[in-house]
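Changelog excerpt

This revision adds worked examples to the README so contributors can see how folded entries look when concatenated. The first example is reproduced verbatim below.
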Amino acid sequence: MQHLRIIAPADLVDQVLTTLEDSVATTSIVRIPKAATRPAGDLVLCDVAREGLSDLLDRLQQLGVQHEGSISVDDIGVEISDAAKRASRAAPGHAADAVVWQEIEQRTHEETSLSPTFLTFMSVATMIGAIGVVFDEPILIVGAMVVGPDFGPLAALSVGLVRWRGRMIAQSVLALAVGFAVAIAITMLFTWLLTALHLMSPADLLHSRPLTDFIWRPNALSWVVGLLAGVAGLLSLSTAKSGALIGVLISVTTIPAAANAAVALAYGAAEQAVGALIQLVVNLAAITLGGVATLVVQRVNQRRRTARSPEAGTGGAGRGIRS
C-alpha cells in the first residue's frame, strides 16, 4: 500500500474527495479542513493500493490539484487493516507488477542532470575500466560497470520516448553525449599520465587479452545482451524491484567500451578504437530499445487491466471521514 497526501485548494477539495471515493483502490480517506497554509487548502490523506495508484494520480492531475496544491506519495511499510486488504484485492492487477508512471518518470528525470557529480562518476568509472581493459582484469571491468551512472539517462530516455516527454529526451541525450565525451577525454589524459609514469604502455593494450577483448569486438550477442539488459533494467525500476538493478549494471559494457576506446585513441590503436565505439553505440541503442519495449508492454497491460476493472461507479473499498 501507498500513502497519499494531498493539499487540495478549497474549490477542488470536493472533486478530490469524490475521485478518491470512486476508486476501489483507496481506503482510510481523511479530510482535515484548512490544515495547510503554504499552499493553502484542506489536507486530504488516504491509503492506496499500488495497483491503482498511477490511474488515481492521473485523475488528480487532470483536476489540476498540482497547480494550486500538492500531491505526495509515501511507501507504507506495515498496515494492519481489513479495509486495506479489500482495496488491494479490488484493485486491478498485482502490486508486484504495478507500474506507477509518475514515480518512474520522476525518478528517471532526476538522473538526466548533467552535474559535476555525474561527470565525475562517468570519468572515474571510465578510468577504472581503462586499467581493467589494458591489464585484462575482469574484476576492474565489473567495478567500472557498477560505478558508471550511465544507466540513469538511458532509463530516462526510454521513459521519455514512451511517455513522449521532449525535454526529458533532450536532457537524456545531452547527458549521455557530454558524459561519454568528457569521460573519454579525461581517460585519454589519464592514459598519457600513466604512460609517462611508466605504469602503462601501448604494448599492454595490444598484447593478448582473452578475458576482455570482447569489449572491442562487437557481435550479435552484444545486441542481445544490451536488449535484455534494457528489459531487466526498466522492469526493475518500474516495478520497484531495485535489487535486480545491480545485475543489469554489470551486464552492460557501455563504460568498459568507452574506456577501451579512450585508451585505444590515446595510443593510436585505430582498430580497437573503432570496435569499442561500435560496441558502445550498439549497447546504448539496444538498452534503449529494450527499455522502450518493456515500458510499452507494461502500459498496454495496465490499460487492459484498468479497462476490465469494476471501478467505475462502484465507490472505494474503504470509506473515510469527511469533516
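The second example, added in the same revision:
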Amino acid sequence: MIQSLTDTILLNNGVKMPGFGLGVFQVSNEETIFSVQKAIEAGYISIDTAQIYGNEAGVGEGIRRGLAATGKTREELFITTKLWNHNLNYEQTISAFDESLLNLGLDYVDLYLIHWPGDNEFLAPWKAMEDLYAAGKIRAIGVSNFERHHLETLLESAKIKPVLNQIELHPRLAQKEMRTFAKENNIAIEAWAPLMQGQLLQDQTILALAEKYQKSAAQIILRWHIQHGIIVIPKSMKEERIASNAAIFDFELSEQDLEIIDQLNNGTRVGPHPDLFFFE
C-alpha cells in the first residue's frame, strides 16, 4: 500500500508508477495549465490526460511551469495519455501518438493507454503501441475501460501484456471481478471517477466516516481506494482541493470501516458501459 504521493506500484514490465495522481478530464487548456502546475507544486508526480480531452497542450505547459517552480526534472514525473482509437489502423495510431507527444511537448510518455475497446477496435492500435514501446517512446502500455472479455481477446494476440486497466471504479462500482482477474494476470487497476464525479460526497455512510476520522468525504473515499491497492487519479481545478485530496496518508481506515464502504457497491455507473460504447 502506498504511503505518500511519490510512492509507487511496480507494473508488470518493471516500471514504477505512482499510486496517486491528478486527472484532468473535462478541464479546459487554461484551467489545466493551472491545476497541473499547482499539483506539481503540491508534490504530485503523476498526471493523467487523453487525446480526446483536448488539453494535452495545457498539461504540457502546466508541466513546464511546475518544473520551473519546483526544480523537479521531467524524469521525476509520470505522464499518462490515451489513444482515441476509433477506426484507427496501425499507421494512424503512430500518427495519433506523435500528435499527442507534440501537444505535450515531451520526448516520451510514461504510460499510453487505449481509451475504449469499442467493437474490438484495439488489435491494430495495440500492435502499433507495442512498436512504439519497443522504440523507447513509451515506458509502459495499457488499456482503459476494458472488460474481461476484451482483455482476454487482447492477451491472445499481444506480444506485450498491458500493464494496467483504467476503469470507472468507486464505492458504488467496486469492480471486484475485474480486480480479481487483473490481479491473477498481474495487471494493475486504476480508477477514474473515484469520487463518482462528486455524487458520493453527500452519501450518509461516507459522511459518518468523515466525521469519525475528522477527514473530508473525498479523503475517506480516496483512502478506501488506496487501501484496496487501486491507483487513483482524482480531478480538481482548485488549488486547495488538489492539496486536500492528497492529504490521505496520515490516517488509515479500519478493516471494519473498509467493509462498511464495500457494502455501498450496487453497480451504479456515471459513465457508459464499455460493451455499449462504440464511439458514436
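Reviewer comment on example two: The first strand starts at residue 8 and ends at 10. The two ends are 39 Å apart (CA to CA).
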